[in-house]
Specification:
Elements lengths: L5 H9 L3 E3 L1 H9 L4 H9 L2 E6 L7 E8 L2 E10 L2 E8 L6 E3 L2 E2 L3
Parallel strand pairs: 1-5
Antiparallel strand pairs: 2-3, 3-4, 4-5, 6-7
Pfam families: DUF4258 (PF14076)
Organism: Thermoanaerobacter siderophilus SR4
Protein name: DUF4258 domain-containing protein
Length: 104
């Protein structure tokens, strides 16, 4: 399995080796986002947090933008494919800004 880094993530997106979790699909619908919005945000994004100890497998948080709107995407790897675990807009109170976590 390849390392979870932004280069690998972008390569998997471009090769079509990705899928959405059911949770991510629900969040897209809930937030009125398109899959293309998320893919564009990942392709122009950067990893801002890593979760190597996640019990479900190593994952990371990507900050990207679509039409200047910040989008957070949590991704992991499964069977050499990228899994888009969840997608959300970084908003208060959980986020002070797109890079800074707020209070709980």
């Amino acid at each position: 399995m390849e390392n979870l880094n932004i280069k690998t993530i972008k390569k998997l997106i471009l090769k079509g080796q990705w899928f959405l979790s059911e949770h991510a699909l629900d969040r897209l619908i809930e937030r009125n986002l398109k899959i293309s919005d998320v893919l564009v945000s990942i392709l122009n994004g950067e990893i801002i947090e890593t979760y190597p100890e996640d019990p479900r497998g190593a994952s990371c948080l990507i900050l990207g933008k679509k039409d200047n709107i910040p989008i957070h995407t949590v991704c992991g790897l499964m069977n050499d494919n990228l899994v888009i675990i969840t997608v959300y807009l970084p908003e208060p109170p959980k986020w002070i800004d797109e890079r800074t976590r707020g209070g709980k």
